[in-house]
C-alpha cells in the first residue's frame, strides 16, 4: 500500500509530449484517409493537444513540426498554447518534403541543396529562440535506394558538416536530438540508420547533442531496452519518440503491438536514472492515427506509457537484485513478471481522481462532446496533413 | 557454343509485362517526387511502355490499373496499344483508395462497402471482356492495424464470398491471380498475408484461380524460390510481380537488391516447367521508380530479368543432378554458381542484334531523344500517379 | 463474478502436455550446460513430468521422443506413468540424429537413407499402438544449406511418398501432426518451412493429417494468430508446440518473450472453437531449459499458457463484436486489451484451491523438497539429453 | 587490359586468414556430423590450413582458438606452421564453454567466475607473446535469456572492467578485436550485440582496440557495408570474420548466400582505404562446414572473397563519382553493377598461373590426393570439434 502511494507520487512527475502532426491526417503511400474534425490550423492542433492534457493530466506540451506548423509570430503562438493550458515543446525540422530533397538534404551531392537544408535547420533554431523550446529534433530521411547511387562515406562527411553548423548555432540551454531509423523512405542506405551512428555523431559534437530513440525504427530482433540502458550509461540518451509496430515503422499507438516491450523499456529508463527530471529525457509520442480517431488515440497512448511506467516502478528491485546475484533465473524473471502481470489501472484511476480528472480518460473524452463540436465546426479549409 | 545458341532460342520466347503505373509518379508516405515527362493519360503510359518494348524486344504488353487507367472505350484503347506496337495485358483491380475502404474492401465489416468493392471487381471483369485480357490481378490491402479491431475469421468468410462471386463471373479463358503480401498498408493482420492463404483460396475456387508471387511481399528470411517450386509442383503458380527490396516492400528495380535471389527464382521457374509458354505463367514487373528515371528503370528491370533467365538456362542440369545425387555439396553448389558467375551480357547483346535492336537498351533509349521530347511535350495537365 | 465462475469452469477442462526432453539437458551448438538432478531414464523423466502435473493440475500427459525414450516394453512404461499419475502422450519421431541423415532423412537423395527414415517413422506408429498414443508428431530437419545442393522439387516428391506411407499405416484413431519450421538446422531450404507447405501435404493426405504450429518456427513479423485462425477455419489445426522466442527458435518458456502474443493466439483458439475438447487440438510444450531449472521452467510455462487462456476467456465477445461491426477501432481494441490487462492470477489461485492444489505452483514445487531429493539421488549414470 | 594488370597487382597483396576450427567437426544443436579425415591435433589443423594456402596462394596464416588449440610450446607450434608454409595468426579466446559460464563470463554476476574468465583472457595475451600474434579476438557469448534475469547495465560495467584489464596487458604491437553479435547463444540480451556497443567500448579503450565485423552477426535488414564504411571513417575497423547466412548466424561459406553483398562490402573496404596493408584490417574466415567437405569449403571461401575483391577493384570510380555527383541514379547504379556483372574468374586464373598455382584451386585440391591420404591416416584419436 505504501508502495502504491510512492508510485503515485512518482507518476505525478511524468510528462509526455504529444506531436502536433498526430492530430492531422496521415496514411500510407497507398491512401490517406481523411477524418472529420481534423485541425486546419496550428491553433486547432494546439486545442486538440490541450484536450489530451486535460484528460490525462500528464501531456502538458505539444511538439511542433516546421514548416507544417509555421506561423508568423511564435511568441503569440506560445501565448495561445498557454491560454489553452499547455506549452510549446520540441521543434521538429523537416528536410524531406521539398522537391530538392529527392536525393537527400544535408547529405545531398549538390552543395546548393545542402545549403538550403542547413538554412532550414538554422531557421528552426531561430524558432526555438522564439518559442523558448529546449530541443531541436533532427530526423534525416537522407539515404540511397540503389547500390552505387552515392558515396556512403562522403554522405557522412556532409552530414557531419551540417551537424557541426547547427550545433554551433545552439544556445546555452538548447539541445539537439538526433534520431536514427533503419529504413524508409530510403531503402538501400540510410545516413543515420542506427543508434551507433547517432551516438558517434553526438559524441563528437558535445554535451548538447543527444540521441533520440524512436521505438519503431529498429531492425527485427533488436533489443531496444538494451540500447536505452546503454545510452543512459553513456549519458547520451536524450529523448524517446514513442509508437509501436509489428513489422516496420508502423507508427501505431505506443504499447499496442507489444506492451511487454514498452514495460521493459520503461524499466530500463527507471533503473538507469532516466526517469528523474534532471536526466532531461524528453518523452514524446510520434505516431500516425491512420484509421483510428486521433485524439482518443493520443489519450490511449499517453495512458499506455503511464501504465508501463507504473509497472516499471512496481518492480521490487531489492528482490530482483537478490535473485539476479544468486543466479536464480526463474526467480529473477518471476520478480520482473510479477510487476508486469499486475493490473495497475486501479492505481492510475486513484491517481487521476487525486489529480481531479476522470479515472477513465478515453471515456471522459468521448462523453465531453468535444469531438462532435470539432466535427461540426471544422468544415472547409485545408485539413492538416503531411502535405506529401 | 551450341548451348549459347539454344539459350538464345529460348530467350526469344520470353515476355515480360510492364505496369502502366510504373510510368507515373510514385513515392513513399513522406513524399512523392514528381518527375518531368510523366504521362498525363493512359495513352501516354502506353507510349512509354511501347518504348520499353522497342528497346528490349521482350515487353510486348502493358498491365492496366482500374480506375487509374479507366477509359470510355477499351476497344479503342486496345487499338491504340496495337498501333504503338504493344497490347493490353493484365487488369489490376483497385479496392484500396476509396474513402469507404478505410477498414477494408471485400472484408469490411460493413456489407455496403463489401458490395461496392465486389462491384468494382466485377466491373474489372467487364473491362477484361472489352480488352481481351486473360488475367485479373487481385491485391487486397485489407487487414487490421490493432488486435481486436476486427474478427480475423469472419474477414476470411467475407473474402471467400467475394472471391466466389468474382470467380463465377470469369469467362472461359479468363483467370484470377490472387496476390499475397505480408504487411502494408495494414500493420497487424493482412487478410491475404502469405502464399498459403492465397493457395488455399485458389484451391477451393478451381482451375482458373492462381497465386501471384510478388517478390517483395515476404517476411525476412523467406525462401521465395521454394515457394515458386512448391506452387509449380501444385499447378497453382499463376504469375510474378517482379521487384526487389532490401527490407520491406521497397518496389525497387527487380534484381537491384539481390541479383542472386532473382537467378535462383528463375532457375526454379525453368526447372519446374514454368518457363514454357503453355504453363501460362505471367511475368510482370510491379515497381515504383521513386527517384530514378522511369522508362530507363523499366528497361533496366526487364534486362535484369532477362539476365537472370539466361543464367538460369545456363545451369548444366545434368552435371547438377549428378552432383546432387552423389551428395557432393560443394560440387553441386559449384555447378550452380558457375552459371551465376557467368557474364551473360555478351549473349544478350548478340541476341538483341539478331532481334534487330540495340545491344545496350538503356543507352539506346538515352540516345533516342524520346525522354527530351516527352519532357518538353508533357507540360500541363495532371501527371499520372497513385492518387493517394 | 458469474463470469469468473464460468471461466474457472472452462479452465478446468484444459490439458497441456509436457515433453520428456524438457527434463533432460539441452543447450546451443556452443555449449550444453548440465544441471543437477537431470533424469537418467525415461522413468525419471516421467517422474518429473508427474511433478508438473501434481503442482499445476493441468499437465496430465507426457510426450515421448523416439529413440531418446525407447524402451523394451511400452505397456509397462504406460503403467509406470499411470502409477505416477499421468499418461503417455504424443510420440515424436527423430530422423535427424543418425549420421546417415546428414543430407536429409525422408528427402535424402539416397533411397537407402529414405527407407531407413521411413522405417523409423513406421516403428513410431508401432510404438503408438503399444502406448495407446493418438498422435504421431513429425518434424523433419530436412533441407539444404547451399543453393544447388539438391533439387527442391524432388525433395517434395520424396517427402510426399514418405508421408503417404506413414499415413497408410495409421490406425483408425491415430493422427499425424506435421510440424513446419522456417530454418535450422538447414539454412538455405527447409523441406517443410511454413504452414502452407504443411497444410498442402495434410490436405492431400486426408482427415488424420493435421498441422502442428510451433510458436517459435516463424519468420520475423509473421502473425501467428492469423495462421491459427486460418487453420481452424480449414479444420486443419492439429496441435501446438508452445515455446517463446525473441529472434529465432529460442525455445524459451512460453509467454516469456511476448505474453501478449500468447494471449492473442489463445484468443483465436477460443474464438475458432479450438478450445473445445472435441476439436482435438493437442496443446503441448516444446522447450529447452538451457540455463533455468527444468521442472520449475515447465511449471511456469504451463501456468503461462493457463494465464493467457484465462485472459482469452475473459474477452467480452459481445462487446467486441459490437465495436468491430460499428467500425470503432479504438473501442474494439479497448475491449480486447481490457481482458489482457486484467490480472488473472487471483482467479487462477482460486481455481487451484478448488482443485486442491497450491495456489502458487512454482513456490509449492520449491517447498516440496523434490528437487533436493533428485539432486541427491540422481548421481552417476548418463544424464538425458539430445545426444547430438 | 591495363586495368586488369593493375587489379592483379593489387590482388597479389591480399591475405585471408583461415580459422583452425573450420577444419574440425561442427554442427548445430541438433547434431554434429563427423567427417572423415578431420584433424585430431593442432598440427593436423595447421597441415590442412597449409593446403588452403598452397592452392590459393593468399591464405598464409591460421587463427588459433584457446583452449581448443592449446599446446605446451607455442614457439614450437609456430615453427611447425612455418615449416608447413604458413604462420600462426590471431588468438581467439574462449569463455563460453566452461560450466562456470552458464550465466556469463566477464559479465557473470559472480565475481569468481569473472576473475576466471579474465584470467583466461590474460593467458591468451601470454600466448600471443609466445606466438608473435598481433591480434586477440574477443567474442563474448555473454547475455541473458529472460527479462529480469540480470541487470543490463551492471553487466556493461563488468564488461568494461574486464576489457580495461585486458587492454592494459596488451603489448606495444598487440591489438584487441572486439566482436559483436545480435543473438545466440543468449536469446534475450547479448552484452555486445551490435557495432555501436563494440565501438563505444573500443573508443574508450584506445587505439589498440578495434571492432571486428562478423558478416553473419546482424539483424535482418542491416546494411553491413554501411557499418564497414562508417567504422573505416572512424578508424575503428579492425577485422572481418567472413561467412554467410540466410537467416541467423548460419556460418556458411562466405559469398554463398549473397555474393552481391560481399561485393558491396569489399567495395567499401577498398573505397575506405581498408584494403591497404597499412590500414591493418585483418581479413579472416569464421565458418562451420557442417555438411560440406572442410578443406574445399575453405578454399572455395577464400576464392569467393578474392572474386568479390577483384570485382570491387574493377569499379570505375571516376565514372561512378561523375554519375553520383550528377544525381543520375541509374547511371551510377549501372557503373557499380557493371563491375559486379563481370566474370572475374579469367583474371583470377591468370593471376594464379602467374603465382605458380593451379587456376582452379578446388579442382587442384581434389586431384592432389590429400583428402584420400588424411581420410586413411587420420583414424583413431579424438577428432577436433567444438567440444560443446
TrEMBL record, chains A, B, C, D:
EC number: 5.3.1.14
Gene3D superfamilies: Divalent-metal-dependent TIM barrel enzymes
InterPro entries per UniProt: L-rhamnose_isomerase, Rhamnose_iso-rel, Xyl_isomerase-like_sf, Xyl_isomerase-like_TIM-brl
Lineage start: Bacteria, Bacillati, Actinomycetota, Actinomycetes, Pseudonocardiales
One of the Pfam families matching this protein, by short name: AP_endonuc_2
Segments forming domain Xylose isomerase-like TIM barrel: 74-248
Top EC class of this enzyme: isomerase
Record-given protein name: L-rhamnose isomerase
Record keywords, A-Z: Isomerase, Manganese, Metal-binding
Superkingdom of the organism of origin: Bacteria
Family matches, as NCBIfam families: RhaI_grampos
GO MF, one annotated term: L-rhamnose isomerase activity
Amino acid at each position: 500500500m505504501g508502495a502504491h502511494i510512492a508510485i503515485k507520487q512518482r507518476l505525478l512527475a511524468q510528462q509526455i509530449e504529444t506531436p502536433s502532426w498526430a492530430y492531422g491526417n496521415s496514411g500510407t503511400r497507398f491512401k490517406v484517409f481523411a477524418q472529420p474534425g481534423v485541425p486546419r490550423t496550428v491553433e486547432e492542433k494546439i486545442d486538440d493537444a490541450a484536450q489530451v492534457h486535460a484528460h490525462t493530466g500528464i501531456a502538458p506540451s505539444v511538439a511542433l513540426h516546421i514548416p507544417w506548423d509555421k506561423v508568423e509570430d511564435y511568441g503569440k503562438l506560445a501565448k495561445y498554447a498557454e491560454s489553452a493550458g499547455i506549452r510549446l515543446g520540441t521543434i521538429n525540422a523537416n528536410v524531406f518534403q521539398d522537391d530538392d530533397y529527392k536525393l537527400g538534404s544535408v547529405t545531398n551531392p549538390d552543395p546548393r541543396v545542402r545549403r538550403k537544408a542547413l538554412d532550414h535547420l538554422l531557421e528552426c533554431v531561430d524558432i526555438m529562440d522564439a518559442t523558448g523550446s529546449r530541443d531541436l529534433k533532427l530526423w534525416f530521411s537522407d539515404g540511397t535506394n540503389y547500390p552505387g547511387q552515392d558515396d556512403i562515406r562522403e554522405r557522412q562527411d556532409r552530414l557531419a558538416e551540417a551537424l557541426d553548423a547547427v550545433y554551433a548555432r545552439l544556445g546555452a540551454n538548447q539541445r539537439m536530438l538526433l534520431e536514427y531509423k533503419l529504413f524508409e523512405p530510403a531503402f538501400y542506405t540510410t545516413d543515420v540508420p542506427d543508434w551507433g551512428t547517432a551516438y558517434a555523431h553526438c559524441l563528437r559534437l558535445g554535451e548538447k547533442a543527444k540521441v533520440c530513440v524512436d521505438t519503431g525504427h529498429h531492425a527485427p530482433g533488436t533489443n531496444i531496452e538494451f540500447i536505452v540502458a546503454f545510452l543512459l550509461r553513456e549519458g547520451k540518451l536524450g529523448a524517446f519518440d514513442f509508437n509501436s509496430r509489428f513489422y516496420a515503422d508502423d507508427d501505431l499507438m505506443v504499447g499496442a503491438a507489444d506492451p511487454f516491450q514498452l514495460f521493459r523499456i520503461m524499466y530500463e529508463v527507471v533503473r538507469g536514472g532516466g526517469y528523474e527530471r534532471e536526466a532531461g529525457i524528453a518523452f514524446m509520442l510520434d505516431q500516425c492515427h491512420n484509421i483510428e480517431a486521433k485524439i482518443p488515440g493520443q489519450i490511449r497512448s499517453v495512458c499506455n506509457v503511464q501504465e508501463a511506467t507504473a509497472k516499471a516502478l512496481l518492480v521490487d528491485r531489492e528482490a530482483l537484485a537478490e535473485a539476479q546475484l544468486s543466479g536464480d533465473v526463474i526467480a529473477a524473471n518471476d520478480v520482473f513478471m510479477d510487476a508486469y502481470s499486475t493490473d495497475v489501472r486501479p492505481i492510475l484511476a486513484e491517481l487521476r481522481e487525486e489529480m481531479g480528472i476522470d479515472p477513465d480518460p478515453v471515456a471522459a473524452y468521448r462523453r465531453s462532446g468535444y469531438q462532435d463540436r470539432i466535427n461540426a465546426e471544422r468544415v472547409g479549409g485545408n485539413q492538416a496533413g503531411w502535405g506529401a
